[in-house]
Amino acid sequence: MSEQTRSGREVRKVALASLVGTSIEWYDFYIYGLAAVTVFAPQFFPQVSTLTGTLAAFATFAVGFIARPIGGVVFGHLGDRIGRKATLVTTLVTMGVATTLIGLLPTYAAVGALAPILLVVLRLVQGFAVGGEWGGAVLISVEHAPESKRAFYGSFPQLGVPIGLIASNAMFLVLAAAMPAEAFSAWGWRVPFLLSAVLVLVGLWVRLRIEESSEFVAVRRAGSMALPLASVLRHHFPQVLCGIAMFTGITGIGYMAATYTIQYGTSTLGLPRAPLIAIVLVVAVLEVPLILWVSAGADRWGLARTIVAGSLATAVVAAVFLPLLATGSLLLIALAVAAARWASAPMWGPSAALAAECYPTEVRYSGASVGYQLGSIVGGALAPIFTTLLLASPLGITGAAGYLVLITLISGLGALAADRIVRRSGTREAVAA
Prior knowledge:
85% of the residues lie in helices and 0% in strands. By secondary structure, it is mostly helical. The longest helix is centred in the first third of the chain and has 32 residues, at 50-81. It is found in: Cell membrane. Keywords: Cell membrane, Membrane, Transmembrane, Transmembrane helix, Transport.
């Protein structure tokens, strides 16, 4: 479909549907991260030391990332075979059910070792669902968008991350302020999880009203590919590696600023939880318009060029992020979180469009999903764990800071390599056609 014949109203409706759905999915995913750094250690791992309990809580958080590539493979296959819309509805329902059940889980005091086992199982289901969500939401937005605004409209599902972060942090902040700490630890933490059931109904109402993109409809009429993932691994494996590299630093620094800051501030520095959550909340609010602005700019400046600029800026921030946290000053911690989230916005916003351009339509869901989800493991899942271990090692804060700098620079290199492949393969023109 040409840019002239695309319906602006339809493009905006699809972008809104992607935004609403991904916001709900990331709300669900982030409230687990908040609970993992605030209440899960004593509730589900009370028989271990503080450090071990913290690592165990982070490990259950990381388990969700391990399931994400599996979700990317399964839902990517379905999305390339039967359609983006049906797949996105399925991922939303799956995530909502898992999150609601976490809110109903008995604790270790009630059922013993069964409690952490059930927690891990439901976290796996969460990861499985979000593994299929991102690729479909991004592709349906990019495939509907006009050529001159692919990065801009592709950033709408990316906004689901800060909006989900805002909603989850706001919910925890309000509940923590509205009840005694003992009540919050005993049952109050369950409320944000149970609220997911209502949010999913809203998301379904929005998503069921959108249509498939013309690009996918044309491919499906021509006949769906039997095994899209096999084609991706056989013919597009360099693009997968580029996706892994590109999203390693983006997700790594993002989760460090969003979740690790709260855990480190409360458990290591002894700071109150509420102001730390408030910092993350305010930073995320201002991050939303910034992502939109840099993504709109990326349509003029170039996707890879914008991502590389963000990579370099984020690497500078990564070098001082942990030293600023270690000061214990709420002002400097706020500066660290803001710099980390805002500097990475030029990477996060346009990365969706670049990931989509790497693949032809018939395997795009599978390829983009696998690259992103594997990158999220290398970056988002392991960054808090590696940082915790490095800080406790002889390398200390210097080694941990160097690790964060390295993964952000890897993102820029991944974007450059992906852009070169896209230019050679001509898939950029295929997305725009």
